[in-house]
Amino acid sequence: MKPRKVPEKTDKYQVRYSEKEYLEMPDEMVWTSFNKGNESTFSFLYKNYASDLFAFGYQFCGDAHLVEDCIQNLFIYLRKRRGRLGEVRSIKSYLFKCIRSEIIKRMKERGQLMDADEMHYKKSFALALSPETILIESEHRERQQKRVKHALAQLTVRQRQALLLLYEEEMSYSQIAEVMGFSDVKSARKLVYRALASLKDVFLKK
Q: Which UniProt keywords apply (predicted)?
């Protein structure tokens, strides 16, 4: 989109844009506006991403109060760090990465984190993917739903997280890699492929 024309002496990053205009902007421009102290942009970020962060965080740990606290802490931190934050290409994947790290930190403090490497928690990651997302339509949908639920229960927490990000949040593999802390996209692809292979094995069983 072409940015709105503003007076020459006005910093375009301090202009108060409408929600529609923000949604049409590249993430880099929105983030730069926020990083330069634009209060309107900060409000947009909270309004536009808080609900998604809560949904992801709740799936992640199943504790609504913890997730709400983590979201508040995250935005307080970001607001305080304005002007010193680095460039961000994808705001959503960046915020998901931040909230995931914050939740892990809090769970460690509570002693709820069992295996930091494999991300196994005392409360399992309750992935809620719809069967329609990953299965071909079938007249035996009820039976398929039960098989999906059983198959998902066999996956590791990290595999379920990856599928959630791919199918529910519609993230790219590079974004999944960023959220989950992988050093390369290949690792994210490998994780998803293994998860889908595991699901396929279950569906092929009679």
A: Sigma factor, Transcription, Transcription regulation
